[in-house]
Fold this protein.
Amino acid sequence: MQVQSMNFKARATEKLADVRLQSTLKKVKGNFIDKRAKAIKQLDDFEGTRDAAVAIRDKVLSNLDVWLEAFEKKAMSRGATVYWAENAEEVNRLVIEIAKRHNCKKAIKAKSMVSEETALNDALSAAGVTPIETDLGEYVVQISNSTPSHIIAPIVHLSKEEVSELFEKVHHLPRKTDITEMTHEARGILRPHFLDADMGISGGNFFIAETGSVALFSNEGNIRMSTTMPKVHVAISGIEKIVPTLEDFSTLARLLPRSATGQSIANYVSLLTGPRAPGELDGPEHMYFILVDNGRTGLVGSDMQEMLRCIRCGACMNHCPVYHQIGGHAYGWVYPGPMGSVLPPA
């Protein structure tokens, strides 16, 4: 994705004048905020839990190299391969090399914002590997040749009618306007891809050093299918996503879905550790982790280090009055809203 953040003022002016966008944003404005407020009240001590999460993230960042090496050692002991990528080009090169090594022709993708950072889909296509986004929102983004406007709700900028029109155009099926029917249609289109893809690509909400696992949160079953059905699974995430222990992960797991979607827990929480072992029925034959720098180490030890605590819940943009007026595309890069105002320049 090309960086356009330097054109923020011009893009913001354009979005403010977009009547359709303004109408769509008004419909969703209160949904995230109200649900988060209710979910937070379910915790006995929200501020205490959040303070504990800050301590966990600071613990990692103060000895990041130690925890990264611990994760690498444990993941490799469980049969996974761990790679390190300094920049976007290295991420794409590594994924393509893995695909060629295993003769993979189609990659089904769960949501991965880091792959948006690196423009991985374009690189895969150029290398002869067909990428298929399987998160429903990311799928709509892909078939509309667009980019996500929110890190957890990629098509929050689109109305139901716009998605209905897009489905009719792309799927060549009678137009549907009922959300359930539209979802079933997308499911029918995506199902064959799950069955014949030979590579699965995911992000990673957290990488757990104690077990060498990747933790994934989702409200759609696509992540489980994308990571267990293909013969190869590649999990890609930033180096700051390391969590020391499963107990630490459980603390963060109490906060992430509440702040992201207003749920006490996501519909699917997956902890994936290594490739399929002898006697196991599910899982990939080969598992790879790619830990990505792409400018992150430049923040360690700086006055911007706190930004690396971010767990990508999206709450900052959900509460941001500026985001509510202009949407995510005005910010001009992968990460919009308050977090996006910090990350692209850094």
Observations:
- The chain has a mean pLDDT of 94.
- The chain is about 50% helix and 15% strand.
- The two ends are 16 Å apart (CA to CA).
